[in-house]
Automatic annotation (TrEMBL):
<dbReference type="GO" id="GO:0004672">
    <property type="term" value="F:protein kinase activity"/>
</dbReference>
<dbReference type="GO" id="GO:0005524">
    <property type="term" value="F:ATP binding"/>
</dbReference>
<dbReference type="InterPro" id="IPR046959">
    <property type="entry name" value="PRK1-6/SRF4-like"/>
</dbReference>
<protein>
    <recommendedName>
        <fullName>Protein kinase domain-containing protein</fullName>
    </recommendedName>
</protein>
<dbReference type="InterPro" id="IPR000719">
    <property type="entry name" value="Prot_kinase_dom"/>
</dbReference>
<feature type="domain" description="Protein kinase">
    <location>
        <begin position="1"/>
        <end position="177"/>
    </location>
</feature>
<dbReference type="InterPro" id="IPR011009">
    <property type="entry name" value="Kinase-like_dom_sf"/>
</dbReference>
<dbReference type="Pfam" id="PF00069">
    <property type="entry name" value="Pkinase"/>
</dbReference>
């Protein structure tokens, strides 16, 4: 979830400090440094394309992360970035890209996330009982699912702002780290309590190429 916090912080910086809409947030546009700090790339480019160019340059994978209003009007806004963040967060929670029909039925999101996580847990544990620590992560998981579901609301006005998203993610992360006594410098241990797998499209940078994430100090 350090990844989610850094990405949210980067979006806040883009929207508030530069008035730039990312427009193409997806796993392959998130780079990870040696300490798992996240760096946003390819921001502000897609919204400058003309509609015809946008259609021709968009891959199927990119379309999965775009808000409904963008697909019909190419109106990229901070709210459409929030939608993309919600899809990315769901992928962080499950290691799988949410299918489009699921995103249209928000009530199905919690059960889908839990079903995927239970399937992965059963595979890894061989069907053994869930540990107390895993059971204790349920409250944090519920909070993160709620954040993701709010972000992928079909109506842009119903989505939280990036500032609100960042606050909610930080609150959830702080609570999880407090209960697990994890260090901010040990992302693997923190993620074990809440997240199963990062999206395979997120790229890990070698130390010499790593830079600080957009919008963080």
């Amino acid at each position: 979830m350090k990844i989610a916090e850094d990405v949210a912080a980067g979006l806040v910086h883009l929207h508030q400090s530069t008035s730039i809409v990312h427009g193409n947030l997806k796993p392959s546009n998130v780079l990870l440094g040696p300490d798992f700090e996240s760096c946003l790339t390819d921001y502000g480019l897609v919204p400058t394309l003309l509609p015809a160019d946008l259609l021709g340059s968009s891959s199927t994978s990119s379309l999965l992360y775009r808000a409904p209003e963008v697909k019909t009007s190419t109106a990229f806004t901070p709210a459409s970035d929030v939608y993309s963040f919600g899809v990315l967060l769901l992928e962080l929670l499950t290691g799988r890209t949410p299918f489009q029909d699921l995103l249209m039925e928000l009530d199905d999101i919690p059960s889908w996330v839990r079903a995927v996580r239970d399937e992965e847990r059963d595979t890894e544990s061989g069907g053994e009982s869930v540990s107390a620590s895993a059971a204790g992560a349920e409250e944090k998981l519920t909070a993160l699912i709620s954040i993701a579901a709010a972000c992928v609301a079909a109506v842009p006005a119903r989505r939280p702002t990036t500032t609100e998203v960042l606050r909610m993610v930080r609150d959830a992360r702080a609570e999880a780290m407090s209960s697990s006594n994890s260090s901010d410098r040990s992302p693997a241990r923190w993620s074990d309590a809440v997240v199963l797998a990062a999206p395979t499209g997120i790229i890990h940078c070698p130390p010499q190429r790593a830079s600080r994430p957009t919008g963080t100090s």
